[in-house]
Amino acid sequence: MIETLKRADFAYAPFFLNNEEGIRNYTQSLKIMENTLIHFLDGNNSPYSGKKPHDLEARINELSITSQKGETFESVAAELAEFVINDSMNVHSPTCIGHLHCPTLIPAVAAELIISTLNQSMDSWDQSSTATFVEERIIDWLCNQAGLPEQADGVFTSGGTQSNYMGLLLARDAYCKRIWNVDVQQQGLPADSKKLRILCSEAAHFTVRKSAAQLGLGEQAVITIKTDSKHRLSIDEINHQLKKLKEQDLLPFAIVATCGTTDFGSIDPLAELAEIAKLNGIWLHVDAAYGGAMMLSHDFKASIKGMEAADSITVDFHKLFYQPISCGAFLVSDRDHFKYIQHHADYLNPEEDEAEGMVHLVNKSIQTTRRFDALKLWLSLKVVGLDTFGEMIDYTCHLARDAAAMIDDEAGFRVLNRHPELNAVVFRYDPEGVSAQLTDQLNKQIQQELLNNGRAFLAKTRFNGEVYLKMTLLNPMTTLEDIKEILDEIRILGEMFNMMEE
Ligand SMILES: *Cc1c(COP(=O)(O)O)cnc(C)c1O
Question: SUPFAM superfamilies, alphabetically (predicted)?
Answer without folding.
Answer: PLP-dependent transferases (SSF53383)
